[in-house]
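In the laboratory, one determines a bound structure by crystallizing the protein with its ligand and collecting diffraction data. In a computational setting the workflow is compressed into a single prediction: the sequence and the ligand go in, and a structural description comes out. We illustrate the idea with 5'-deoxyadenosine.
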Amino acid sequence: MTTTATINLTDRAFLLAAVRAQDPTLNQTLRQAARARCDEIFGREVYLRGLIEFSNICRRNCAYCGLYTGNSNIERYRMTPEAIVERAGVVRDLGFATVVLQSGEDPWFTLPILCDIVRRIKAETGLVVTLSIGEMPFGDYKALREAGADRYLLRHETSNPELYAKLHPGHTLATRLDCLKSIRDCGYELGTGFMVGLPGQTDEDLLADLDLLVKLQADMVGIGPFIANPDTPLAGSADGNIEVVLNLVALIRLLLPGANIPATTALDSLRSDGRELGLNAGANVVMPIMTPPDVKTQYRLYPNKRCLDHDPTVCSGCTRRRLEAGGYTHSFNPGWSKQRQMP
Ligand code: 5AD
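The predicted complex, in structure-token form:
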């Protein structure tokens, strides 16, 4: 095996070696280069976003996800619009400039209700609003954008159409990509991403995932290891490999230098220092969970989510301490994407 570690993003052999992550020299060189690139653009500042998981009710049947319709082992909850707006106020009072509203695809939240929530949060808190609430028709994305939503997160999950269809019975990658196009056309900052180590996913698939991110010129990219959830059809499958995830974070930083890349919760679930490793590989965003404590434990996409027994307001302080210990500073800057300003 070669231990040369010359970074060449146009060389498929290099990219394949990077996604295999079996060469420690290559891993280290790649992650250091990505961190250095991140330092040039964002410095040591890590943007914080407050995440509110407002409903775990979902009409979809994604085979990997604990919220899938067939899972009767979680208690379903739905926050009221009033509670969501109030919680956004807590997020603002803690100093955050951005709130991320995430949920399953819960049909109770009709377009008028969602638009009203967004309008009220904008009017009452002035927060930047990111939505992560799944697939919808173009007109709905447009209406929510007009109501004031600024960013939209919708991971493509995997760019392999057959694997996508297998994991999402009755759904297609083509529809997912149409949604991403709509989101872009409506003028949102566009966030997407994928899981690493899905059963049946190949190294070539991961390279195609990277190609897709570049093609979309994503403003935000969230990736994380697949973590087998015992309450899903994929129970007992092997988890994704953290070394592979970290190399992919680094590659994404080098391919999309100005994008916002979170060190994701899934990374932190696989290893207690997962977040720090993600930042050291080129991530620049952390999204502390600000979901109210009484429902937080029921938003279980995968096992081992950390700090589920803590009040989210405690997590905010803990996050800052962890960042400082790792040589980073927290930033309450709204943290707009720099990707579209890149040469
Ligand atoms: N392991 C890792 N990530 C998961 N997600 C859902 N289920 C799992 C799992 N078992 C991710 C998906 C989704 C995001 C909110 O969480 O990528 O888009």
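The pocket of 5'-deoxyadenosine is lined by residues 64-65, 155, 157, 195, 224, 226-227, 229, 266, 301-302 (CB under 6 Å). Keep in mind that any predicted model is a hypothesis to be tested, not a measurement.
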